[in-house]
C-alpha cells in the first residue's frame, strides 16, 4: 500500500520533469486511505522558489481539510524533503513520511541541500520525522 502511493508520487515527479512548469519532484498526501492531494514541484511555472512538491502538497492539503495540521495524514514524496519542506513537515505533524530518493542521492544529482541539513544525523532526522525510504531505484530513475 505504501509502495503504491509512493509510486504515484514518483509518477508525479516524472510529470514535473517533462512539464514546463515543474521540477522533477512529486508528493502525495493521504488520510484514511484517501488521497487528499497529489502534486509536482511548480517552482518554474510560478517563479516561486517555495513551490517544492512537499510544501505545495501541505498547502493544498491544509486548505482541503480546513485545518492547520496534518497529524492524521501520511506524506509520500519522491525525494527526501529539503530543510524548508522538513520545517513545514514539523508543523504538519505527519503520522509518517515515506520517501524515494535520499537527500544524499539528490545532492549527487546536483540538487541543493543546505550544509546544515547534513550536520543533522540522518538517523535522528528519520526517527524524529518517522521517515522511511522505499522504492529508491524507481525514484532515482526519474533523474536519469
Ligand atoms: Zn523542499
Overview features:
8 helices; alpha/beta; binds zinc ion; 144 residues; five-stranded mixed beta sheet
Topology:
Blueprint (H helix, E strand, L loop, with lengths): L1 H17 L7 E6 L2 E7 L2 H4 L6 H13 L7 E7 L3 H10 L3 E6 L1 H6 L6 H5 L2 H7 L2 E3 L2 H6 L3
Parallel strand pairs: 3-4, 4-5
Antiparallel strand pairs: 1-2, 1-3
The structure holds zinc ion.
Structural commentary:
The chain has 144 residues and is of the alpha/beta class. It is built from eight helices and five strands. β3, α4 and β4 (96-101) form a beta-alpha-beta unit. The chain has a five-stranded mixed beta sheet with strand order 2-1-3-4-5, with helices on both faces. The longest helix has 17 residues, at 2-18. The mean pLDDT is 96. The structure holds zinc ion (ZN). Zinc ion is lined by residues 52, 54-55, 81-82, 84-85.
